[in-house]
Amino acid sequence: MSDYSSSSAAAPAATALPATVYLIAVGAFALGMASYVTAGLMPMIASAFSVSLALAAQLVTAFTLAYGLGSPLVVALLPARAQRSGLLTALAVFVLANGASALAPGFSSLLAWRAIAGIGAGVYLALGIAAAAGVSAPQQRGKAIGVIMGGMAGGTVLGVPLSLLLAQQLGWTAALWLVAILGALALAGLLWRLPALPEVPATSLRRKLGLLADGQVLAILLVSLLAAIASLGMYTFIAPLLAWSAQGAAISPTPFLWAWGVGGIVGSVLVGPWADKIAAPKLTCFILLLLALALCALPLAAGWSAWLMLAPIVLWGAAGWALQVPQNQRLLAVRARQGDGNLAIALNESALYLGSAIGAAMGGLLLLLDWPMWLLAAGAAFVAAAALLLQLPAARRS
Questions:
Q1: CA–CA separation, 260 vs 246, rounded Å?
Q2: pTM to 2 decimals?
Q3: CA 62 distance to own-chain centroid
């Protein structure tokens, strides 16, 4: 089956994206904040509820596990005619769960509300990407998905520091209220502007689960998994890599984290128009090549100066975030006839979270075995190269 990108090569000149796409992106911005802000709030929450930091860290675990494992199940159970209402309901659940988190009387209830927020976030993003592609012209679907991913990256890069600054002034609940308010604004806009979404074929749960036997889908998900192991897994170890490069001298990781995030925003936005011109498998190959080269360059730059790492870190962030635009675009194309592209996207998000966890665990094991730090970055580059090799047959066929 051809990809959206390949079918749109001869499309007429693009017009402006529908306003709905940008409203969905506002919700994605709130999701990006919610996904990472709790990690920065852990000391405040631990103190507020008189729990250990280790226990407070389970708030992140609850959110990510519910996001990665719970959301595909909910999307699979969603009726074919409930795509619009499902999108709005998922965002409403996300908003209410974040507000309830801020009002939680105890740690147990806070933990439960973070899990509920994670499910709402995962369902919203999967349905939101599918909706953004559905309301956009065929030659603009890649750009629309890029805007959504750019919103998510922006929430991580810009929204998290802003919410943490607010928390320092007004308390940890203020950060969650900010997430809820932004989500509520997106919900109000979508209630007003979201049109009826294109109908998808009614499919039984058994047939939906059949996508797990689709070789094309599994190959795409495996590429996403390997890319996440390399990119998101390595992200966990930026600070130790800096310490190794600076030979023990104190150096703040903040500028480098910002560089990675800004690269992610730029990559997500810039890749969209290219995704509408280049076949998705070929574009994925190019992005994976950039990711592997950036990760290879990390230890080389670190050997000279920690500050030289800024350039490959920007490229690494751009490639890591940009990759999911053609990946999601291709999943929608591959499953267009079956009408379960939103479920495929939810599974893709699960692959990203699983890859992040595997990458962090593998890196931690290497550090535990006292392997040299440069080998960690080289290993991440090797995994990215493996994803590239896996992607090459699809690129040749396209």
A1: 19
A2: 0.81
A3: 17
